[in-house]
Specification:
alpha+beta, four-stranded antiparallel β-sheet, 16 helices, 18 strands, 37% helix
Length: 505
């Protein structure tokens, strides 16, 4: 068995072993500052605070690593198959921002998949750059969006030779992945970097049943949320780089600008530990989780056939995705009695908390510590929910939804169909409208107006509308439907979606 190497964590533990006396930040001083207060608080936080230090001579500096952080990043690159890796304490958001800022200047153009995470659009705003949007493909049965097709990406590259790169996002939130070998080859024909938001695929390098990683396919810059599917603290992520098309100095400069000069050592240590565990265990790490996920699929098909799941068989003749994460199970009620939000709330009543829901689906994520008793509890909950809802239709607001579930995906199709072409360059700027330049308009009356806000159903964090975009009928219908179904919105001035902020005429 491989050695367990976690140099940053080991350096922090060694430092703690000397019983250091703090004359430095942070103010909790290795947790001692809370030791005389509430016992429960002390028990919860004191242990992690002992590792929460600052940039000392023995703990290294994330923005100029020469010691254990440098070694931790070297081991991460080796483990994940990159040439260089940066630890991120601001989540994949920090990595996406850095890749954008490092590759486009104000006024320059980058080709972007339309259905990307809001962090990429925020990066464009910070850069003052322009995006040429290319529409995604759609899975025919689920209605879910994936990456653009190769032909449309090729057309965008041909139409905009001044582009500085291509930014894609795969897998999607539901684990539907696209092998990127041909995409990388296409983008590299134009001597451009392929940048990939692979936030949900950090674990792909560690089992043969997982999709190929973007790095193994030849992508130049890849962002992964280690905390999502590996044993790291929330906001722990990595940015992997390879090849000569990446401006590595610019990436480091961007990271220094957007990440805190006082990064979290517990988060960095957890990244070190998660990587060390995966490097030592290999496929063994995920074997049990895969087996449990497959067992659940079998049980659901046999006992609750009304609840359908996205599976590998759905890929045949589809083309929208070429691989599927076996640890992500996307369920929907084929009878139309339950929306995704309703299923999520019903599961919570049985103590089962799903990762997310949309108008139609509920997403379940199986993890490293999932147990047979956990999955049996989930099966029991699904059986009970199906039985309870066998004779009525409702959504989270208690309304009849006999047509809502079917219509939700059609609205998403229509929204993207209206933009199912290669867009002209859309300029993004981090500008605040002056007082009086925006107004609130009833959502039913805002078709054709220019949005003054970014509206993001969360999760999954993919904007339906961004500032400067013209509002279409399909967008209005989609937002209204999501609001009725109980979705939450980030960036919206009116979370109820009664009004939208638009630019004053």
């Amino acid at each position: 068995m491989k050695l367990f190497q976690a140099p940053l964590y080991e350096a922090l533990k060694q430092h703690l072993g000397f019983n250091p006396t703090s004359f430095h930040v942070p103010g909790h001083q290795y947790g001692r500052a809370i030791s005389n207060y509430n016992e429960e608080i002390r028990a919860d936080f004191a242990a992690i605070m002992k590792l929460d230090v600052t940039e000392l001579s023995v703990t290294d500096d994330l923005h100029h690593p020469t010691g254990p952080i440098m070694e931790s990043q070297r081991l991460a690159a080796e483990t994940f198959g990159a040439e260089a890796t940066h630890l991120l304490t601001g989540g994949s958001t920090a990595g996406n921002l850095a890749l954008v800022l490092a590759h486009v200047n104000p006024g320059e153009v980058i080709i972007v998949q339309r259905n990307v995470h809001k962090s990429i659009l925020n990066g464009l705003m910070l850069a003052g750059a322009s995006a040429v949007f290319v529409p995604p493909m759609f899975d025919q049965r689920s209605g879910l969006a994936t990456v653009p097709s190769l032909p449309i990406l090729a057309a965008a590259l041909e139409s905009y030779p001044e582009a500085k790169g291509v930014f894609l996002s795969t897998p999607n939130y539901y684990g539907m992945a696209n092998q990127l070998h041909e995409y990388a080859a296409l983008v590299h024909q134009y001597n451009l970097p392929l940048l990939v938001d692979e936030a949900h695929g950090a674990h792909y390098a560690f089992h043969g049943q997982f999709p190929d990683t973007a790095l193994s396919a030849g992508a130049d810059g890849v962002v992964q949320s280690i905390h999502k599917t590996m044993p790291a603290l929330t906001m722990g992520a990595m940015l992997h780089l390879q090849g000569t098309r990446i401006n590595r100095k610019a990436v480091s400069k961007a990271l220094a600008a957007i990440q805190s000069s006082s990064p979290s050592y517990p988060i960095m240590a957890s990244l070190d530990i998660a990587r060390a565990i995966a490097a030592r265990e290999g496929e063994q790490l995920y074997n049990d989780a895969i087996k449990l996920a497959n067992w659940f699929r079998t049980q659901l098909k046999e006992q609750v056939p009304r609840f359908k799941m996205i599976d590998m068989q759905m890929m045949a003749g589809n083309g929208a995705y070429t691989a599927l994460d076996p640890l992500r199970l996307t369920l929907w009620d084929s009878s139309g009695r339950l929306s995704g939000y309703s299923m999520q709330k019903a599961l919570e009543q049985y103590g089962c908390w799903a990762e997310m829901a949309d108008s139609r689906h509920v997403l379940l994520l199986f993890g490293l510590s999932s147990s047979l008793s956990d999955v049996q509890k989930l099966v029991t909950a699904c059986i009970a929910i199906a039985s309870e809802s066998s004779s009525y239709h409702y959504n989270s607001a208690g309304d009849d939804i006999s047509s809502t579930v079917q219509n939700a995906d059609l609205l998403q199709h229509q929204q993207f169909a209206e933009a199912a072409y290669i867009s002209e360059p859309v300029n993004f700027q981090m500008l605040r409208l002056a007082e009086g330049e925006a107004e609130s308009v009833l959502i039913s009356e805002c078709t054709g107006r220019i949005s003054a806000e970014m509206i993001v159903p969360y999760p999954p964090g993919i904007p339906v509308l961004y500032p400067g975009e013209r509002i279409t009928v399909a967008m209005v219908k989609m937002l209204q439907q999501l609001a009725r179904d109980g979705a939450k919105f980030q960036g919206a001035s009116d979370p109820a979606m009664t009004y939208i902020e638009v630019q004053r005429r």
